[in-house]
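so i finally got all the pieces together for this one. its two components total, 754 residues if u count the protein bits. some of the lines might not be protein, just check the labels. i wanna see the whole assembly predicted at once instead of chain by chain like last time, that was a mess tbh
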Amino acid sequence: MIPPAPWDILEIDVAENLASMPRSLTRPALVIFRYQGAVLGLAHLLPSELPMSFAEAVAFVAGVIGGTAVELAHLGTADVQRKAGITPQPAAGLRSDINPFDRLDLALAARRARPLRLSATIVVLMWNRPASLSACLSALGSEAEAGREVIVVGRATNSDSNSVVRKLPGARYLTAPTVNHARNTGLQAAAGDVVLFTEVDAQPELGWADALLRRFDEPEVVLAGGLVLPSSLTTEAQIASYLDPGIPWPRLLPLAFDPEFLDGWRRGPPIWEIGATANIAVRRNAALSAGGFDTTAGSPEAALWLRLLRAGGHARFEPLVNSHPNVTPVSR
Amino acid sequence: MARPIVGSDAPYALLEIEITEKLVPLVLGPRGEHGAHVLVRHRGRPVGRLWLEKAEHGETIAADRLDSLVWGVAGKQAAILATGDVLLKREGAGIPSPTPNLTITVCTRNRAALLRRCLASLVALSDGHRCFGQQIDVLVVDNAPPDDKTREAAQSFPGVRHVVEPVPGLNFARNRALASTDRPWLAFIDDDAVADRHWLDCLANGIAASPDAGGFTGLVLPLFLDTEAQLCFERDGGFGSSFATERVGTERWGDRLHPANAARLGTGACMVFSTDVLRAVGGFDEALDTGPPLPTGGDIDMFYQVLRAGYRLVYLPGLLAHHEHRRDMAGLRAQYFTWGQGLAVVARKNAEAEPEMSRRLHGMLRRWFGNTVQRLLLCIAGRDIHRSANLFAELRGGVVGYFGEYERSQTRIAIRKREHGT
């Protein structure tokens, strides 16, 4: 059974002791397990499944995170899993008593040590739910303080939005006739080397922009998508959106989408797997050279991603930090 | 879908690989086997299994290739156990658990040779665990014995207790075991199975972790794959082959049929219950597992009863028994028949006892029927005669079981009990 709304969302840091595992629940819960900020696993818990003994909690946590922890650890310095046909290497570490967390420390450190050479513009798409704007901009405060350009693109009719945007230093408010035009408006107005897209109902985590930007230290990378997690599951609409986000998930390993990824699909490549504008970054010049978002396409995002890869570009999926869409009962 | 069985594929060798050790090239079929069934362990605990066919891999599999195959089937579970070990160690836990206060029961009838093999494995477990606390109690329930051979076999193992249950029927024997123990945990293992060498360690850890569980079930893998029937059964899924620990209670996330589908949690060949819980639910239903014509259903009915009574069941893959499957196709076909029969009898019985559960129980039956018909059609299309016959037998058993078998069985056991003066 899928329990009815509301659900809770719990975050547990497995780097700390597991005493933070709840003893009881009043509602069904989505549990997000993290290690040094990286999401290692998601699980569902019913109130009737608690309490757990300590050993049961360990088995539960290990069952949720074990596969991802070891796969991440074994990616090592390669730090991406090739999407096109190469399976992970055998778990050589399992042959001995090497602590998978030690290797995981190294693997995460390698991802966070990539150089930050490019400038960035953050484009917030605000088509519905202007009421969420303050929370979104608040989440982006540290990016603005770091000197990154922030552009909010919305409807001309959202007259108070301009004043809300002005409260964030360095932020601008632009208008566009449709949501598809809004993406291009943001792309064309951006000054940064890389344009990071998010949406007004999302709350990017601290360090979100850095994690995506670091993926562009390889010159062939033109596109990098990120993880999207729910921040609230209190309504049936939020739960439905979480259970069927339209993209395969949860994907917790960094992925590489090389141009070869486009080959061999009978019904066309699942290009949407790279990500969507709730949490994605694109190299500005490459996107403009490819003609930007095609406002006549059924999915302007997927159409641009496809053109970028066909032109020889590479894409990455980087789930190191995420963006929480705060989905409301209104459809997205 | 499994490859059709044509001609002779058996025998298969039964091998084991420890994933934490360096792999060496594997030679297939040195004694004329057509392949191998490889159980993969992580520090002794089962994490996956691998089917290796000589026709596909040749006589020797290089270590690198083997490594890749082993990772494919067992990597995730090994990773989960390795992660759990690290977490336990970090938190200062992970010391060996004391031997549980346990009676292990073997219910048997007139199969002294099989019983001796089974008891030898249990006595070895007991000896191996002696330093961790009290000794386990091993009990043989001799069901309607025609002679003294079972008694002699039991008494040839010092310390093994022997009791007689005069009324024929496996659930009569199970209830005799329940009446004959004063220990808080009661395990059952089939006489045609042997307990894995880590069985007791796994159960000790399981009980230490989940002392409030109503019961534990485990993995059952083949003891031999010598005949086509044994190979056919195991290739088709056998007694189930999940290597993931599972802990379920009254509800299960995403499963609208639970606990009507409790049969997926295990089998009576290897199961352990809290004796308090068994007594609280009234013991085993004597009208099930009565021997022919209803030699089935007692185990899955108890899984359902325990869950419905609000207790948890824990599936532990390390609670592993190695079972000697039916050697001939006729016997295997009869087993498929009884599977369908047991599923339908238990569902019908419980739906009538608890009308509020009828929707789930009938939903489970509809899903089982649909899946079995689909598999049958695929087997017919693939001209797989043996599997088609087995699946047809399973469906036939379901129909026979659903329409009045439980009531007929109640009538039969009432007569049987009168005959034995109970």
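The CA atoms of residues 277 and 290 of chain B lie 22 Å apart.
The longest strand of chain B covers residues 313-323.
anyway lmk what u think
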